[in-house]
Amino acid sequence: MRDCSPSPFIIIGMHRSGTAMIAQVLENLGLFTGWKKQQNHETLFFMDINDWLLHQSCASWDYPEPFHFLLENKEIRTLAADYMRSMVRTPAVASFLGWRKCLRYRSLFNLNFPWGWKDPRNTYTLPLWLEIFPDARVIHIRRNGVDVANSLVMREQRAFENKKSRYLARRAFYRVRPKRGGFTDSIRCASLEGAFSLWEEYLREARKHVIALGSEALELKYEDLVSEPYELLRQLAGFCDLEVSERDIQRASVVVKKDRAYAYKENPELVAFSEKVEDRLTSQGY
């Protein structure tokens, strides 16, 4: 049976770089980005598949490079793609479509409206998704690495404090029932250097896709988007073939947080770090 669904728009990019903002803006402009989503606009359906894929090569969102071993293994790659292809045709897509749309369309190959999804993990799993949706178009958003690293470190610090408090409150209980989780969500992102090097890896991977896809990919710079939201949102809507009015774009631009561009410049410690990694920033266009 011939697939008749419009091809999806796949949003890639490093964590904390504005992928959630792009997904929210596009949703406001008429792109369906999922029914059951996390607070950061990641749809559980695609996130679970991406996590499963990374796990096959002992990779994770903060240690993604081993995923290349899966891509290089033809037999495992073929089976993984076959599994993904079957999943987008099963009732499991209800977590993405919602039950009403799921009962109507049954499969992601039968949709008749513009759709897509956001997950930073797409940056690495994209080659497999392009086997499932070969005509998909890709949107990449990038942000200054120092701001990204700082955001990750701050998030990790909050997570650590919460886990530490919980451990101290339940320490006696763990003598009876061993602790399952650890004390950190990402030990790599506990330091600026660890988080910054992760940003470099994601950008290198995303750039390869953008170059290979040519006109089928659109790359946006976070700092340009927040300084000139109207022009870039119009460009984004055009890339996604969304029929929008001037008023639609004006309303959608409200979610753009203009004060987060180059936020690190207000912090002397982060300025010092940026000077330390200046050459590495320059090599990535900053």
Instruction: Please describe the biggest sheet, giving its number of strands, its sense, and whether it closes into a barrel.
Output: 4 strands, parallel
Low-confidence stretches: none
The Cα radius of gyration reads 20 Å
Number of domains: 1
Number of helices: 14
Using the 3D structure, state the CATH architecture: 3-Layer(aba) Sandwich
CATH hierarchy class name: Alpha Beta
Strand content: 5-15%
The protein's oligomeric status is: single chain
CATH topology: Rossmann fold
InterPro entries: P-loop_NTPase
Pfam families: Sulfotransfer_3
Organism: hydrothermal vent metagenome
Protein name: Sulfotransferase
Topology readout:
Elements (H helix, E strand, L loop, with lengths): L8 E4 L6 H10 L15 H13 L10 H6 L1 H14 L6 H4 L1 H7 L10 E3 L3 H11 L4 E6 L2 H26 L21 H22 L3 E5 H6 L1 H11 L6 H7 L15 H9 L1 H6 L3
Parallel strand pairs: 1-2, 1-3, 3-4
Helix pairs in contact: 4-7, 7-9, 8-9
Protein name: Sulfotransferase
Pfam families: Sulfotransfer_3
InterPro entries: P-loop_NTPase
